[in-house]
Here is the input.
Amino acid sequence: MGKKSKRYRGDIEKQPQAPMALGEAVSVLKKFNTTKFDQTVEVHMRLGVDPNQADQIVRGSIVLPHGIGKQQRVVVFAKGDAATAAEQAGADAVGGDDLAKRIREGWTDFDVCIASPDMMGLVGPLGRVLGPRGLMPSPRAGTVTPDVAKVVAEYKAGKVEFRNDKGGNVHAMVGKLSFDEAKLGENIQAFVNHVLSLKPAAVRGAYLRGVAICGTMSPSVRVIA
Here is the structure.
């Protein structure tokens, strides 16, 4: 672990040890907004799932009420009317063979990749490049869809994807520290509620075991779950 900055060490001293109500936790987190850049706020949820069991995987996506404070770069594999609609919805790049060639050559300067079902024969072989970066289109994530324009619009509005990691934890970006407390709190609450609604039927015992929020360069604050 590298040496922490004087600013970070000062924030650690202000870090509360006990979990607190969401509104209070957001207020504390906002006090850590002392960097020169606008920190991204993340929520981390510890779940009582067994990530090795296929019927206990927690994954999905949600359009947050107030966006995430970041314009996501979206590319789309589509042709014909679907391609035109994707462009009109604000996609940053739309194509077929040409787009696949760029990605095969190593271009991954985007946040989301969406594909219409008829393009998956072309997209499938790109898994070697897209898969390790979490960019591979997937029907389950909603990024393989006949309505590419609708999904482009959702991601441009602040849609976030999530999937539990190997430890059974879910992480997501939920805004910026510059957001006012009410908007940040509403985004966090919407995300937590959505994950709670996805509780797998196979889970036994406590599903939600802990919630914490933090900024890119700030200590975490635990929230009463």
Remarks:
- The chain has a mean pLDDT of 91.
